[in-house]
Structure formats: C-alpha cells, structure tokens
Amino acid sequence: MTEVVKNKYETVIVLSAKLGEEGNAELVEKFKALIAKHGTVESVDEWGKRRLAYPINKETEGYYTLVNFESTPDFTAELDRRYKITDGVLRSIIVKKDPRFATAAAKPRKAAEPKPIDVEAVAAEAVEANESAAE
C-alpha cells in the first residue's frame, strides 16, 4: 500500500468586482468546498476589494482572497483548471509552500532594538569632516 503524499499550498484568487460582495462570497465558498473535498483548508484570508495594477478585461478593481490548504499534488492541476473555466475569476495562482520554511514562518520574529546614537561622536566626526574639507 502506498502512502498518499500531501503538500501545503497557498492560492490567491482575484475575483471580478462586478460580481459584488455576495457573488464573490459564493465563489469563495464554492472553491473552499472544493478544496475541503480534496484536502484540508487551513485558513482563508479575505483581503477585500483592491485596485488592480493594470486593467484586466477592462476592470480596474478586484476582490482578493488567500487560501492556505493541504492536498495531494494532482489536485492542484484540477483546481487551476476550475479557476480558468469559472466566470468571474480574473487571476489566480497556486504556490507550493516549502516545508523547510514552514516552522520559521510560524515563529514571530523579534524586532531588533534600536541602537542608541552617540551624539558627541557624530558631532566630532562632522567637525573633522568640515576641517578637512576646508584645507
């Protein structure tokens, strides 16, 4: 018996603004259900309505949604095919997450503490630079 390999993926879908809030919510639910049928939906992040970098099909705005999921590699081809044949999907991308960086991404990074500035040393360097420039 062979073991089923599952990978972690993320997909971003840009949906047409012409569909409205309800139409976009329906499409996102449709794709979430499809992903859940073939894998596991880990998270869904609604980015909302944003301006597109360039017009796509004469549209300048779209609804962005990020979905993190886990599934078999062959399902991503089917998901991409469904994106392409669904009316209202302007753009989509599916990216396999690198497992080497999965733990690093989960840990919050500690912000670097700012180093104190030695005002006297900076002033002395400025005076030296002015004196050498005057010579």
TrEMBL record:
Chain's role: Binds together with bS18 to 16S ribosomal RNA.
Keyword terms, alphabetized: Ribonucleoprotein, Ribosomal protein, RNA-binding, rRNA-binding
Family: Belongs to the bacterial ribosomal protein bS6 family.
TM helices/strands, residue ranges: none
GO CC, alphabetical: cytoplasm; ribonucleoprotein complex; ribosome
Name this protein carries in UniProt: Small ribosomal subunit protein bS6
Gene Ontology biological-process annotations: translation
This protein's encoding gene: rpsF
